[in-house]
Amino acid sequence: MNDLKSPRGIDRTPREIGLLQRQRDSEEEAFTRPLEWSLITRLISYTKPIAFKRNLLIALTLVRAIQLPLLAWMVGSIIAGPIAQFDTDLLFWSVAGYLLLAFSTDFLFHFRQRFAQEIGETVVKTLRSEIFEAVQRQPMAFFQRVKLGSIIGRMTSDVQTLRTAIQDVFFVSIVQVGILVFAASLMAYTDLVMFAIVAALAPILWAINRHFRSRLSQSSRQTQESFSRVTANLAESVNGIRITQGFARESRNADLFRALIVDHARFNMMLARTSALLIPLLELNSQFFIALLLFVGGWRTLDGAMEIADLIRFFFLANLCFGPIQTLGSQFNQALIAMAGAERVFKLIDQEPDWTDAPSAQALPAKDASGIEVEFRDVTFSYVAGKPVLHDINFKAEAGQSIALVGHTGSGKSSILNLVSKFYLPDKGQIKLDGQDLLNLTSDSIHDQMGIVTQQNFLFSGTVLDNIRMPRPEASEAEVQKILLELDCDDLVEDLSHGLHTDVGERGASLSLGQRQLVCFARAMLANPRLLILDEATSAIDSLTEAKLQTALERLLLGRTSFIVAHRLSTIRKADLVLVLDKGRIVERGTHDKLLQAGGPYATLCQNFSS
Ligand SMILES: Nc1ncnc2c1ncn2[C@@H]1O[C@H](COP(=O)(O)OP(=O)(O)OP(=O)(O)O)[C@@H](O)[C@H]1O
């Protein structure tokens, strides 16, 4: 906990400690895992759509694995052969042969690069769409459990490690192993004693390389993570600057930011120290090898046990061996990192939703111009097992009725909406839509006949037209205009700089609150739902817009069954049934007038509603 202390010795608030603690949490995710055949074969199966190119690439790679050591061997042989023998003709033809081989090697290299990139791209694009589909089919509870950051992590850094594995590690390793085997065979053929020395020392070089590479990549990941905490904190600080200044929190926030950059600097220094140790050590290793080979090779040549030409050839080949030993070390490390990434990505893709529609579920029959009849019978519901938030809920909404849900915060209003929408399933009891048990109806058919307007008035990036047309992208602009006219808010479009084609900005930021809500009403109206779920906005809106919203809402509700978490007296007054909730139970029900007369909990609550 020591490094969580503030630089000025001030005790941190739980939020500050939490922020630094997140670093530990993310580090707990496995960074590497051993090679696993099932993960490797599954990953390779993603290259099936371009199997021909993949196989061609394997063949090209094998040829390249022979070409590279052959080039080195040729250099050694030309020096030891025609040059040592002063044979000009042979020198000319040998160099021409060398050039021909070099040209064909690089010609193939061009295709190796291109095909590898294509294979990587194919795998990445399939994985990303599979992740997206897997996330989309999850029920609501999943999104409360899983952090957005972790889904983004799967989609970006983990998929990136898999790209590296499939497009580089696999093919680079084939080439390097090929070079190693081919060069080793030529070395063994040239001089067995010298080869034995290289073979004995190679594992030491490999082990040193592996050790430092894995430390290096661990440090590099920690550095990246600490930097993303710095940027996340900066974004939060800038976005929340009003609150920061309003509560005079600048100095504490600056402390926290300083702690994060100190943390980042610490990881950066660790990374620099590790690489400053690794690179000279590797260089020293190679030089130590060369010194040893020079000594033994020189001794054997002087002793007459070895030809000088063989010694030259051997040196070229030995040099060629050092590269693959080091490269294979780092590729192996990448492969282990990719295994951890693959495990996380496939776990997300394979994640079965907590529940799905029953196989026998039928579509809710669509009826024109009438609302859905909704009935709750003894419904109990909990988000967390054993902690029910709704108890014995009973009510019936006739087709076309509007039901207002009122109650203190946390009383269970949104939970009822979640159940009607089949975003969650009840623990006990029954919910019936048009007389059929919700469990026997498909979610899609319910959502097709349902419209939702939330308090946040969520808009997607794009134009006003795109947002209104979301439930029916094929709707014409004229249809959208007609909807706006029906809602009596066609002047909304006239006020906007580019009419229906005005860009709404990020999350609708360039529209006013009232305009955003009208867009959401128009969106719901275009869907022409039989059931409308509405969480009435609480934000203060000027009285003119307010009146417009009320008119639009009345028109939207006409002929549909609606459930409204109501905050305005005007909405509640018009509701056919008001359900008063308290601690997950319906404590009163009736019309506004009746409930007001009764003088119970509703009458008390009423004083808080805006008119
Ligand atoms: N996803 C969730 N996981 C666990 N508990 C939840 C979840 N959502 C709501 N709750 C709990 O369920 C209870 C009812 O919440 P609900 O959101 O239905 O109340 P509400 O009346 O709509 O409140 P508000 O008016 O503040 O929106 C609360 O105690 C709340 O803490």
Q: What can you see in these coordinates?
A:
The chain is an alpha/beta fold and 611 residues long. It has 3 domains: 34-191 and 331-351, ABC transporter transmembrane region fold (Up-down Bundle); 192-305; 374-606, Rossmann fold, CATH 3.40.50. Helices cover 63% and strands 10% of the residues. Helix 16 packs parallel to helix 17. It is elongated, with a radius of gyration of 35 Å. The relative contact order is 0.09. Mean pLDDT is 84; it is low at 1-10.
Strand order of the largest sheet: 6-7-8-3-9-10
Average pLDDT taken over every residue: 84
The count of helical stretches stands at 20
Query: Stretches where pLDDT falls below 50 for ≥5 residues?
Result: 1-10
Report the order of strands and helices.
Answer: HHHHHHHHHHEEEHEEHEHHHHEHEHEEHH
Our measurement of the CA-to-CA distance between the termini, rounded to an integer number of angstroms, reads: 53 Å
Question: How many domains, in number, for the residues?
Answer: 3
> What is the CATH-assigned architecture of the largest domain?
3-Layer(aba) Sandwich
Helix content: 55-70%
- Find the structural class using helix and strand composition: alpha/beta
Unique bound compounds: adenosine-5'-triphosphate
The first-level CATH class name of the largest domain: Alpha Beta
CATH superfamily of the largest domain: P-loop containing nucleotide triphosphate hydrolases
Largest sheet: 6 strands, mixed
CATH topology heading of the largest domain: Rossmann fold
